[in-house]
Write a structure and sequence with these properties.
Layout lengths: L1 E4 L2 H13 L2 E5 L4 E6 L5 H18 L5 E4 L9 H4 L3
Length: about 80
């Protein structure tokens, strides 16, 4: 899953968070990350895993603005997709 953000601290914090959660994180430019679970999972399970972790992170950092992109997504997600309540 690709995650984009505006502020640099978000990328640093997300990278550390996902790596502690046993994910592989690659930077995609100054304002983007590609995140995948370290363990091999089916695509749908991998997406659910990353989304669940991201929801927790967003609850802890409500001030952060992020967007997510998955392989099947063709448009920008809604606020509800990113900041699930």
């Amino acid at each position: 899953m690709r995650i984009t953000f505006e502020e640099g601290w978000v990328g640093v914090d997300l990278t550390e968070y996902f790596r502690r959660s046993d994910c592989v994180v690659e930077h995609t430019g100054a304002h983007g990350l590609e995140v995948k679970p370290r363990q091999p999972l089916l695509p749908r399970a991998a997406k659910l895993e990353i989304e669940g972790l991201l929801r927790v992170w967003c609850k802890l950092h409500p001030e952060a603005s992020i967007s997510t992109w998955g392989p099947e997504q063709a448009s920008r997600p809604t606020e509800q997709d990113v900041h699930a309540t």
